[in-house]
Amino acid sequence: MTLAELIASFRVDSDDKARSQGGGQGDLLWPDADVARWFGEAEEEAAIRKRLLFDDFTLAIVRIDVLAGQSSYALDSRMFEVSKARLLNATTGRHLEDLYITTREALDQHCRTWRDDRRRPGFFIQDDTRIVLPGIVDRAYTLRLEGYRTPLDPITADSDPEGTTPEISAIHHRFLVHWVLHRAYGKQDADTFDPNRSAEALARFEQYFGLRPDADLRKDQQADQPHHNVAYW
After folding, report:
1. Residue 92 backbone phi and psi in degrees, to 5
2. 178-214: b or e for each residue (b if 16 or more CB lie within 10 Å)?
3. DSSP string, 25-88
4. Quick check: 134 and 102 in contact, CB under 8 A?
5. Which member of 10, 34, 69, 191 has the lowest number of beta carbons within 10 Å of its beta carbon?
6. Can you give the pTM of this predicted structure?
7. CA 148 – CA 62 distance, rounded (Å)
8. pLDDT of 100-113, one tens digit each?
9. Burial environment of residue 35 by CB neighbours within 10 A (0 to 12, 13 to 18, 19 or more)
């Protein structure tokens, strides 16, 4: 569905379509710009909750040029979960080894000097905005990531309604409207605020896409991956 079709679906479900006939945006309870922005939120929420957008191909996101002596690198803000990391030869691109996810606490248990050891990376730590290769990197490498991200071109209030389509699969598009209804009825406005309808719409959205994991839960899930959280230096 295009953004225009999604907005039209929202107008029907919210009974706001009739108010727009014969008039402009001023006749609508919720302007198109707000509705478009909420659809952008809905797609991002869906991508995070259901881990819908797997990426191992967008080089700007999944490739990191590793420098000798530098261990910490910024993650693209759209990648929220790294599921696999591979270390490649920087010159030939040949695969050297898979890196296993770990934590600083696990490394401390097995080797207190890991921060100062110079070696080829064998593990990685995912922080909120960065990926860390424990120790001091001995030479240049290429790091290739695989994982889950939010949309490359998110929907915004300025998106072209006719030319914009959510990146997630079309089978999910019609369920995005529940988030938009949740946000619309939750807006603090005398004419539209309805906490019961807002809560009901959110429940329907969560029934389909699931609950949003908080930061602590995601960190625990990553650290608890089998065979990935114990580091033997």
Report:
1. -95, -20
2. bbbbbbbbbeeeeebebeebbeebbebbbeebeeebe
3. GGGSSS-HHHHHHHHHHHHHHHHHHHT--EES--HHHHEEEE-TT--EEEPPTTEEEEEEEEEE
4. yes
5. 191
6. 0.88
7. 10
8. 999 999 999 988 89
9. buried
